[in-house]
Write a structure and sequence with these properties.
Homodimer. It is an enzyme of class 2 (transferase). Its EC number is 2.6.1.-. This protein is α/β, with parallel strands linked by helices. The chain has two domains: about 130 residues, Aspartate Aminotransferase, domain 1; about 220 residues, Aspartate Aminotransferase, domain 2, CATH 3.40.640. Helices cover about 40% and strands about 15% of the residues. The chain contains 13 helices and twelve strands. The strands form three sheets. It has a seven-stranded mixed sheet, with helices on both faces. A three-stranded antiparallel sheet has the order 9-12-11. A two-stranded parallel ribbon has the order 1-10. It binds pyridoxal-5'-phosphate. Pyridoxal-5'-phosphate binds next to helix 5.
Length: about 375
């Protein structure tokens, strides 16, 4: 039988990163030692107190369904965290999701329909494009590669891209894949355009806790943005909890009501005992987070220094654990070559909408990072 698949799925391409990870696995199966700088997850174990809280919650019988939006104690802890960031949300304005990815999916499904226009800042995290396409939306992309991935000097381009036709704008600061943290002036520029053209903005703040010497502003704290910002965050990155699948979004109650329908009819809720562990993460894990962030900062400095030694300048990231390495125009071929010849895995910039770069993740030990850079240099890739 020939199955007929829906347009919403056939118009989405398989991720360009798949080719690289398939090749990396093939090489590893052949016994090759691959330095994997392509991963989007911290290399630290989940802090012990969080693991214990998860186990205790299971032992205490927190294994059934929860309220669809998430247990009230976690939503209260999230509301407190958001208040610390200057965002006022009641627990009725928060949905707890299995990962920030599901939060983003639900928001896009709630707001974007066939032919609706969505603006992305490039390079942009791979799944935004796929989510918008699956919802039937059209993308307008603003390239930040000419401005060291900063938004402030590109506000004029953004002004050209945003119009009354724009339904949604996605801002991700600190950014995956660039590590850029947008200045307050840049965010104010976003606010002015959003207010002028009546646009809803997603502020994906999943890397907010991972910054180096800068304090990123939450977009929703700016005057005029309170009722048009949906703030997304999660536990994967700051607390090294990728596999636990826990995230959330907070926004205007009518959006929460609409997205909540999709949430309850699809995932029902996030995992019960994982939600209990999330409370522990938010309330008692600051020290472990600080230690991980300090390690990322040391690695960032080391990688930037090693690249400089090889004559390569990068835009130094102020947050997250990624940086963009300028490579050949055909970045896909560069990444495949770097993997085949130097056994170093990176992600092509074209996967994020910006060819000519490779994303390096420095969520790896200093030893492996050094090894990876040296191999790239030896094989002529730097
Ligand atoms: C920018 C960004 N947003 C959201 C996510 C989703 O994270 P999770 O679903 O693990 O919470 C990621 C993960 O890589 C990300 O990089």
């Amino acid at each position: 039988m020939t199955m007929e698949f829906t347009d919403r799925l056939t118009r989405v391409e398989p991720s360009a990163t798949l080719a690289i990870s398939a090749l990396a696995t093939e090489l590893e199966n052949e016994g090759k030692d691959v330095v994997d700088l392509s991963v989007g997850e911290p290399d630290f174990p989940t802090p012990e107190n969080i693991v214990e809280a998860g186990k205790d919650a299971m032992d205490a019988g927190h294994t059934g369904y929860t309220t669809s939006a998430g247990i009230i104690e976690l939503r209260e802890a999230i509301a407190d965290k958001l208040a610390d960031d200057g965002l006022e949300h009641t627990t009725d304005e928060i949905i707890v999701t299995p990962g920030a990815k599901q939060a983003l999916y639900e928001i896009v499904q709630a707001l974007v329909g066939e032919g609706d226009e969505v603006v992305l800042l490039d390079p942009a995290w791979v799944s935004y494009e796929a989510m918008v396409k699956m919802a039937g939306g059209d993308l307008t992309r603003v390239d930040l590669s000419e401005t060291d991935f900063q938004l402030e000097p590109a506000l004029e381009e953004l002004e050209t891209a945003v119009s009354d036709e724009t339904e949604l704008l996605v801002v991700n600061s600190p950014s995956n894949p660039t590590g850029a943290v947008y200045s307050d002036a840049a965010l104010e520029g976003v606010r002015d355009l959003a207010v002028e053209h009546d646009v809803t903005v997603i502020s994906d703040e999943i890397y907010k806790e991972i910054t180096y010497g800068v304090e990123p502003t939450s977009l929703g704290t700016l005057e005029g943005m309170e009722d048009r910002t949906v703030t997304v965050n999660g536990f994967s990155k700051a607390y090294s909890m990728t596999g636990w699948r826990l995230g959330y979004f907070a926004g205007p109650e009518d959006l929460i009501d609409q997205a909540g329908k999709l949430h309850s009819h699809s995932v029902s809720s996030a995992v019960n005992f994982v939600q209990h562990a999330g409370i522990e993460a938010l309330e008692n894990t600051d020290e472990a987070v600080d230690e991980m962030v300090e390690a990322f900062e040391r690695r960032r400095d080391m990688v930037v220094g090693l690249l400089e030694d090889h004559g390569v300048d990068v835009a130094v990231p102020d947050g997250a654990f990624y940086m963009m390495l300028p490579v050949d125009d055909d970045d896909q071929a560069w990444c495949e070559g770097a993997l085949e010849d130097a056994h170093v895995a990176t992600v092509p910039g074209s996967a994020f909408g910006t060819p000519g770069y490779a994303r390096i993740s420095y969520a790896a030990s200093e030893e492996r990072l050094e090894e990876g850079i040296e191999r790239l240099a030896e094989e002529g890739y730097l």
